[in-house]
Amino acid sequence: MRIAGILYAALGLVAGAMFSLIFATMGSFPMKDGQSALPFPLRILFGGLAVVFLPIFYGVMGALMAGLGAALYNVVAKWVGGIEVEVG
Description:
Elements lengths: L1 H24 L14 H41 L8
Helix pairs in contact: 1-2
């Protein structure tokens, strides 16, 4: 469960970096009336928060979902018999 959380946090860091780039370049695409989609300080704030918030969110949710998946597998494995592995 801990490993899944770390892997998802790394994935969240990549996603946060992409969102940060999207917010940084958002000003170069003006809206219909010539105004920017978001003012510069908000773009920087949202981009910076994405790099901080998304890895934490992805890590916590990834660990919780991995734990839930493992618990569900254990319940179903009792009914079905699970997977048998022979190490030779």
